[in-house]
Structure formats: C-alpha cells, structure tokens
User: What shape does this take?
Amino acid sequence: MYVYTCKSDYDSMLSCIYEAWASGKGHKNIKLCVEPVEQFGLFDEYIHVDADESKAEKVSSAVWHKISPQVYWEISYALLSFEEDALDIVYRLLILGFHFGPKVLDMVQYREVIRFREIRKLVSREAHSFREFLRFYCVNDNLYVAHFEPRSRVLMPVASYFTERMPSENWMIIDDTHREAIVHPKDEECYLRILTEEETKALLATEQEDYYSRLWRNYFRTMGISQRENRACQNNHFPLWMRKHVTEFRETEA
Amino acid sequence: MYTIRTGMTTEEKLEILADAAKYDVACTSSGVDRKGQKGMLGNCSAPGICHTFASDGRCISLLKILMTNHCIYDCKYCINRYSNDVPRAAFTPEEICELTIEFYKRNYIEGLFLSSGIVKSPGHTMELMCRVLYKLRTEYKFNGYIHIKAIPGVPDELIAKAGYLADRVSINMEFAVEDSLKKFAPNKNFKTIMNPMEKISDTIALHRLACGKDARMERSAGNRYLENSIFNVKRLEERGFGRKELPVSFANGDLRRSFAPAGQSTQMIIGAGNETDYELLQTTQKLYQNYDLKRVFYSAYVPLNEDSVLPAIGTPVPLLREHRLYQADWLLRYYGFQADELLTEEKPDFNEQLDPKCDWALRHLNLFPVEIMKASFELLLRVPGIGPTSAKRIVQSRRYGTLNYEQLKKMGVVLKRAHYFITCGGKMMYKVPIEEQYITKELTVVNRKENWEIVHRNQYHQMSLFDDYAIG
Ligand code: SF4
Assistant: This one.
C-alpha cells in the first residue's frame, strides 16, 4: 500500500489528493491520511506531500466544473472533519464522482458514499452545536470573547454565523484546539489570526464571570422542573465534552 | 444601572418570574429566517436554535419569563392564581430589555418569550407587554426572536400590534373541551380564545400572500402531497382558507411588514381535565387545518396546587401520555396520518404499551408486508421503523440498484421494528408469522424499555427541533 500523507490544512489535503491521483499507482493500492500518522504499517510506503497552491487549485476547479459546485462545497466541508478516514473517503468519493457525475451524493449503495455523508453530517452537526453552545464573556464592557475546543476545524462556519448575528459588536472567537482565532471589530469584516502560545494563555484569562453570567446561572438552575428531572436526556443533548467553556456548567462559582 | 424600584433586585425578580414561567412548554425559536443587519443585534434561523438543556432535559432557547406574576384571575391549575400566597414581582420594561440584550450578546438565548399574569385587566396587561416589545425592537435595536403569549379577551388592536412586533404569537387553549375550561379557568372562555386565533391566522395568511408566499405556513414537503395528509394541498383548497381582507380592526397594517412570521402556536394541559386522547388529537388536527397553527404543544400537568378538582400534589406527571400525544402529533404533521385513523370514539385513548404507529400497523396487518423495492413513498412512511428521511433515501437509492437489509439499516431504518412489516427483494428478514398477537407481543417487548424510561427516568424528548426542518 502507498500511503500519501499531508498536513491538515486545506491546500495540503487537496495537493495530496492531486499527487495520489497522478501517481498512477492504482486507486486500490493507495491510501490517503492526514499527519500525524498514528500507526505505521510494516509493509506500507509513506509519501509526504507538501501544500502546493497550483495543485490544490487544479483539484478544486476539476471538481467544480467536471462534477458540480455542490460536490465541491460538500467536500470542502467534509475536509474540516477530524475523523481519521475523512481525507481518504473524500478521495474515494471523487473517484466515484468523476465517474458518475453530480448524482454521486445520492448513491448510497456505495459504502464510501454512506461514510462520506456521515462525515459531512458530523461536521455540520459539530458546527451547529457550537453555534448553540458557544458562550461569550464580556471583557472591558465592550468586547465579547468566546473560547471553544472543537474536534473538527469548524471555526470558520461557526464564526460566519456570528457575523450575521452580531454585526455591530466587537467580538472574538478562539479555537483553543487549533490555536486560531477569528476577530470581529464592530461593523467591519472579520479576520483570522493564528495564535502564539503566549497569546493563547493570555486570552484564557478572559473567561471572567460578571453580573449577567451570574444571573444566567441562576436562571438556568431555576428552569429545570424537578418533578421531571432527567439528567440522561440532558447529557444526551449537551455532550459533556462540549461543556468546558460553557457558563452555566462551569464550576467557578464566584 | 440596576435600580431598585420595588425594593427587589433584578436578580430576585428573575428568580420569581422565571420560576413562574417554566411550566409553559413552548420554547422553540423556530419558524423564521431573518438576516442580521448592521446597527441591530440579532438574526433568526428557521430550524431554531437550542442554547442549552435544563436538568429535566428540556431545551432552553428563549428567555422565558413573565412580565409579572400578579394576577387577578384564579385559574385552578396555575401557580400564579389570585388565591395562592406566593411571592410576587414585576419587571420594568428596561429590566426585560436589558436582560434580553445582555443574555443574547453572550449567546445564552435566541430571544425572548414573554407572557404575563393579568394586572388590572387583560387589555391593560397586553398594552404593557406590547410596550416592552416596542422598546426592545426600537430603542434596543433587537432583531432576534420574540414569542409573545397573547392574553384572551383584549381589543383587536393590541393583538395586531403584538403580531407586528413578535415572530410568534400564541394563545393557550389549555383544554380541548369547553367544559374543562369553565371548570378550571372560570374567567376564560373559548370565544375569547378562538376569536383572536382566527384573526391572527387570517392576518398571517394575508401578509404571506402579500410577500409572495403561499397563504399557508410551510410544512414538511413530503406531507403536503400525500393523499391522506391533513395538509394535503388539494384537500385544503377544497376547504377554502383565509378571508380576502384584513379584519377591520387590523386594517391599517401595512401588508409588507412581517406579521408573526413564525406563526401561531398553542398549548393544552394533559391530565388535569378529563378529555380523552381522541378529543385532544381531534382538536389538534382542527387547529392545524382551520387555523393553520404552526405547532400545538402538550404540557403534562405538574400538580402544584391543593385543589379538590385537581390531581393531588405528588401525583405522577403523565409523561408517557404526553409522549404518546407528541408521537401522534408527529404522525399528523410528517407521516400523512389523520386523527381518526389513530383513535376512534370507541377506542379513545392511546395504548400505553405501544407507540401509535405500531398500534396502527397492527390493526392493518392486511396491508403488510410491503416490498421495499416497490412500495410507494406513502406506504413506506406507514411502516413502523421507517421515518421520512429513511423513506426518502429508499426511494432515491432503489433507482440505482437492489437494496438489502444491511443497506436499509445504514439508511436509518429501525429494523427491530420494521422487519415484521417489510420484504426486501421478496424476502423477509427472519421467518416470522404475520399474525397480530405474535407481533404485538414482540413489539411490546421492544417498546417496553422505552416506556419504562419515560415513566421512571423521566425520559422525555421534546423532539429535536432540528427534525422540524431536516425532514424533507
Ligand atoms: S390568567 Fe390564569 S393561567 Fe394566566 S397567570 Fe393568571 S391564573 Fe395563571
């Protein structure tokens, strides 16, 4: 087996798809995977691929024009996934896509298509959950800061939702897993910032309780009807791993 | 900023007025898409957004509070009734606006759900509530979701005003039959509930037409074309719907402004009065068809008051019954069922053991098994264990090749229920007799665990809001 590996940014992954495809080694003999590789196979050959804008561009444009813009959007979303097999499944989907055209997304009799749809759905679920569960803390009266630790790289889709929601506030969303932040100055376009370790640390101090966060905790506690208590259902809907930065679940009672 | 007006802090008031509001079940922020706007705060997203889940597993999406819990009425089932000795409080309009805005900016909530006890008169109360909303929309530039619970028996102008300010308006029916309403809410009557409901419904329809939409609210796409569905397009056309002009008292409204774009909803209390499930479901269906309500909610009665006509304090909350009603409501809204297919006057209550869909299928065994590769979408939907999403997937993918049980499972078919009712490529999954008693016994076992959880562990799903839209 030839294993093509790359970094987890978008251009790297598309370049990796390009190289694997162009290698002529036969789709059956190829696997794609994002670094770091967890376990090296004894008989596999590992080939690292660097990001190359022009290769990435070629793949994008082939998918867009030869399959469909919809498939292009679907794969860009699926590539945000943290699932181990995401990159390889996207590759498999493209093989089918170039063969069958845009209807590939409906062809659930292929195992790869079902898995692709699963991955795609997991990403949008994660993004959706964080739109709901993100919590902002008010800093210096006019800046709202939110931390979260997603598994997939959903910072962009999450942040773009908040540009709709709070166009005229200063806010910042920090992805502590991937050390990136989106900064949104009031009434302006937002921008991405890769954070240094010191910055990440300094920003953690922004999670400060205030008057309204206290009111919210009380409100949250009040709303549960004790005669219908159901923690199992609560845990089902609000997974524990997503609670770390969530005001009403934090232990820091002031 | 936190002025003390009545000797009580905002914090204390919030505790009282949230506690008093929490028994109202509706908490969705769904039904309207509205883009954000520079200079304003907020947007709306049609599938609805749940921000958190309380200890009882119910979603919290809106700041659900009463403007005040002072009340001149004495509805027997209500904690805020006049004759109860409970701490009372009232918010100032500023307090409500500031709480909403500050909670919203921190992403705790999608908006405000405002209801109120009745001070002085229904009209006076409603006027105050409208003033709060007006302030919130204009002075505080709030563009998020607002749900207002309208008070029965107020002048039409106030209902109209509420509709222009809010996204959803609800008027609670509380009971499905008038006798119960009289008995438990002596100050209310059906006329003052149905009359504004009808006017709101007509007004919504006219506004929808004016902005180029269908007069009726959006429904699950599948269900509108199912022959038997309560929302079947042809059938609704025959019934006729909506008048051609605004009710006189609403008349100076501008049709291009949005009017309660997320529609109307209502709520009925389960287990306080003695209506049957049949009556409740019939009423539900009529509300959907005649008033085009977006949602009908059921609220299992939690005994809070000592009163000889009501279940005693400590009586178990009828969660399983509430769950069955929600399941049936689902069947009406997404599966093309009608109320009288599920229940009849002779058999007016749901089977505790079995969910309504299995129950129906067992009474119609002559229709089964159906062949997955051939059955119509309509019939697939009626198979226990197959939902709108999996039915759609089956229809889509069987065009490209033969399906097997493994694939059905991957498409989301719940085989432990479905396998009694289907064949795939001419074969059943296991060799089982299609025989009512046998299957009933088997399915009861499947259901039992679930039922047990609902009753004993309060397993309660307010069915996922997401499903409201994700179904196509
Ligand atoms: S009107 Fe009836 S239900 Fe509403 S607050 Fe007053 S007593 Fe309660």
Remarks:
- Chain B is about 40% helix and 10% strand.
- Confidence is low (pLDDT under 50) at residues 1-5, 458-472 of chain B.
